[in-house]
Specification:
alpha+beta, disordered N terminus
Length: 390
C-alpha cells in the first residue's frame, strides 16, 4: 500500500503509531510499500523532531520558528474559535488527548500560533517585520536620518586591507565620519558611532544594509549588539532590501566620489589613508558645493542634533511582573530555570510577565519579543516584534 498522495501526513502518522505499538519494521515497510531505509528514516526523524517529522521536509536550509503541520495548526485555531476563553494550556491538553502517540509542541508554541492568527488579546497593533527590508523614511531636516555603510574594502600600499566606515546625514549630505578601519568588527563600529554621537548628538533613525555589524543574520530578528544599542538610545532602525543599494542612493553617490578622490592612489598604511580621508571630509563638507543643496556646501546646511548623547539610562518595566538581566550567554534565568533568548541582548534588562496560565511574555523596552513557558523552558519568538520596524 503506497503513500496516499492526498494525505502523506496521515500515512506517516499511521506508520509511526504502529511502530510505537510494537509492530515489526520490516512487515510495516512491506505493507506500506516503502523500503526499510525509508521506514527507518521516517522513524529517526520522528524520534529527533517529534511532530515536525510528519510534514514534508523542504530542501531549503532555512528553519522557521513555531511552524507546525498545517492540520495541527488548523486544529489549534479551530478549537480557540470554538472556545475563545480557553488558553494555550487547555488547547494543548486536548491536542495531546486527540493525538496521544505524537510528541506535542510546547505550550509557548501553541500560544504563538494563536497570536499569529490574531486570537490573543494584545495591546496595540503588530507591525510587519519584513525580512527583505524595512519601511524607509524621507528625511527633511538634519538628523532625521543618518546613513551608514562600509565602502568596499581596498588594499593599501603595504598590502593590508582598509575597510572605510562612513556615516552621512541624509538631508544635508553632511559627512559625519569616514574612518579607515582594519576590519568590520563590531567593537570598532561601537567606538566610531559613540564618538560621532558625542560630537553631533543622536539622530532619529539610522539606515544601513543587512550586513555585519549592523545586523546579524542568525540572531533574533537579525539584530546585532550594535543595533540593540541604537534601540536603547531611542534610534529607529531602517534597513534597505538586500541587493538594492539604490535605496541608500545618496550615501552610495558619496562613496563614488570618495573612491575617486581619496583612494586612488591609496595610502601607504592606515594612518596615511586616514589623513587622505580627513582631507576629503574637510573638502566635501566645507568647500564642495552640492547641486541638490542649491550649490551650498553640506557644512552650511547641517546643524547638530538637539538630542545630546548622555549614555544609557536604566531600563524599567513597571507593568511587568519582574525585570531580569540577560546573562552573558544570552539566557533568562528564573530560579533554576534557564531560557535561551539571544546573545545580542546580553547585559540588557528585559521585562517578563505571565499572560496566560504558565505562558510568559518577554519584552525589551517597548518591543514584545516572544513567549516562553517554564515547563518547556523554550523561548518562542514572535514572527514580527510588536512595534519594531525590523
Amino acid at each position: 500500500m503506497p503513500w496516499k498522495e492526498w494525505s502523506p501526513m496521515e500515512e506517516r502518522m499511521k506508520f509511526i503509531t504502529r511502530i510505537i505499538e510494537g509492530e515489526a519494521m520490516t512487515e510495516l515497510c512491506r505493507e506500506f510499500g516503502i523500503s526499510r531505509k525509508t521506514g527507518y528514516k521516517i522513524w529517526d526523524r520522528y524520534q529527533n523532531s517529534g511532530l515536525e517529522a510528519l510534514t514534508d521536509r523542504s530542501r531549503r536550509p532555512v528553519h522557521y520558528a513555531n511552524q507546525l503541520p498545517k492540520q495541527v495548526e488548523q486544529f489549534i485555531v479551530r478549537l480557540k474559535q470554538e472556545k475563545p476563553n480557553w488558553g494555550a494550556r487547555k488547547i494543548l491538553e486536548l491536542l495531546i488527548r486527540r493525538y496521544p502517540d505524537i510528541r506535542p509542541p510546547a505550550r509557548s508554541t501553541v500560544h504563538v500560533v494563536l497570536d499569529r492568527h490574531g486570537l490573543v488579546k494584545r495591546k496595540g497593533r503588530r507591525h510587519k517585520n519584513k525580512a527583505t527590508g524595512t519601511p524607509l523614511s524621507l528625511a527633511t531636516q538634519p538628523n532625521d536620518l543618518w546613513c551608514a555603510d562600509y565602502k568596499g574594502e581596498f588594499m593599501l600600499a603595504n598590502r593590508r586591507y582598509c575597510y572605510p566606515l562612513t556615516i552621512t546625514d541624509q538631508a544635508s549630505r553632511f559627512l559625519l565620519a569616514c574612518e579607515a578601519l582594519e576590519s568590520t568588527k563590531e567593537q570598532f563600529a561601537f567606538t566610531i558611532f559613540e564618538n560621532v554621537f558625542k560630537q553631533y548628538g543622536l539622530p532619529n533613525a539610522i539606515r544601513t544594509d543587512n550586513g555585519v555589524p549592523f545586523a546579524s543574520p542568525n540572531a533574533l530578528f537579525n539584530l546585532s549588539k550594535l543595533s540593540v544599542w541604537w534601540l536603547r538610545l531611542d534610534i529607529d532602525i531602517e534597513r534597505i532590501k538586500p541587493g538594492n543599494p539604490q535605496q541608500n542612493g545618496r550615501h552610495e553617490r558619496m562613496h563614488r566620489t570618495l573612491k575617486q578622490e581619496a583612494t586612488r592612489p591609496s595610502g601607504q598604511n592606515i594612518l596615511q589613508q586616514q589623513a587622505k580621508f580627513d582631507h576629503f571630509m574637510e573638502e566635501y563638507n566645507s568647500e564642495r558645493p552640492h547641486e541638490a543643496l542649491a550649490m551650498k556646501c553640506p557644512g552650511e546646511v547641517y546643524v547638530s542634533s538637539r538630542r545630546p548623547y548622555e549614555g544609557l539610562s536604566d531600563l524599567e518595566y513597571p507593568f511587568h511582573d519582574r525585570t531580569i538581566m540577560v546573562t552573558h550567554c544570552g539566557r533568562i534565568c528564573i530560579g533554576k530555570n534557564k531560557i535561551n533568548l539571544s546573545q545580542v541582548f546580553s547585559g540588557q534588562a528585559v521585562g517578563v510577565k505571565e499572560v496566560d496560565d504558565g505562558i510568559w511574555l518577554v519584552s525589551f523596552m517597548k518591543y514584545d519579543l516572544g513567549y516562553f513557558d517554564l515547563e518547556g523552558k523554550r523561548f518562542e519568538p514572535l514572527e514580527k516584534p510588536f512595534g519594531l520596524k525590523l
